[in-house]
Specification:
This protein is mostly helical. Helix content is 80%, strand content 0%. It contains 12 helices and no strands. The model has no long low-confidence stretch (mean pLDDT 80).
Length: 264
């Protein structure tokens, strides 16, 4: 049950990277544990010397997403308790629960109700401790679930997904759309597309559109406001630089491939 010394040595850098990445994504609006896990797994796969190990029990592929998951779950409380802004759907439910009890999340919560804040912090420690106590004896059961034949697991997952999708609006067309997007996802996986950016785009897309409209209304339709404001201009420059860094390796690989073919 316990990791070996080699496992600890191999997983320590991945744990640190996952913790940092999860903490950042947990604070950002639209972030959360799921996105942090996907992003951490993708990062480790990119940094690995042998990416083919991932998906076959590589300790880095387990340690980093789990660390990012835990870090994002904790740091999601920061914008909620300091600004009153829920960064994801789970924190939105927390806002609803606080509102029901007459608590307005925001900067005043930490001053007027410190017992609530420190109670949440204590609950995080207690929750992680209970996870260790519960999961260690039950690890054998979780391992046995992995032995369920894929031919039985896959249809069951599809059926439960269809039932859940239909129950949201009681509309058969939602199930058809889910099936269509499932085929698109299958095609993307077969062509080695990473799921994390797609998930980020799906979650952050509506937020970006809403704030884009808000900014244009404030600027009366002037698009130059995104370049004239220092903060916006810096963020756009960083995004453009990251895009260039992501595209350059692909362009170099294609250029080298063309040169090799021309020499041949």
């Amino acid at each position: 049950l316990m990791p070996t010394r080699k496992d600890l040595v191999d997983s320590t850098p991945a744990i640190l990277r996952g913790t940092v990445l999860g903490s950042i994504l947990g604070i950002l609006p639209g972030g959360g544990a799921v996105i942090a896990s996907f992003a951490a797994y993708t990062l480790e796969k990119k940094l690995a010397k042998d990416p083919s190990r991932f998906g076959r029990g590589a300790i880095e592929g387990v340690a980093s997403p789990e660390s990012a998951n835990n870090a994002a779950a904790q740091t999601s409380f920061i914008p909620l308790l300091t600004l009153g802004i829920p960064p994801n759907a789970v924190m939105a439910l927390m806002v609803g629960a606080m509102t029901i009890h007459g608590i307005v999340p925001g900067p005043q919560v930490m001053q007027k109700q410190p017992d609530l804040v420190w109670g949440m912090i204590a609950s995080m420690w207690i929750g992680n401790l209970m996870l260790i106590i519960i999961n260690l004896p039950l690890v054998g059961i979780w391992v046995r679930l992995l032995r369920v034949p894929y031919r039985l697991m896959f249809p069951s997952i599809v059926v439960f997904c269809a039932i859940g999708i239909y129950s949201v609006n009681n509309a058969p067309v939602d199930v058809v759309l889910a099936g269509a997007f499932g085929l698109v996802g299958y095609w993307l996986i077969k062509h080695d597309f990473e799921p994390a950016p797609l998930l980020l785009g799906m979650v952050l897309g509506p937020l970006m559109e809403e704030n884009l409209r808000r900014a244009l209304l404030i600027s009366r339709g002037d698009w130059s406001v995104f370049l004239s404001r220092p903060l916006s201009a810096v963020l756009l420059a960083i995004a453009a630089a990251l895009l260039v860094l992501a595209v350059l390796p692909t362009l170099r690989a294609k250029r080298d491939e063309v040169f090799v073919e021309s020499e041949g």
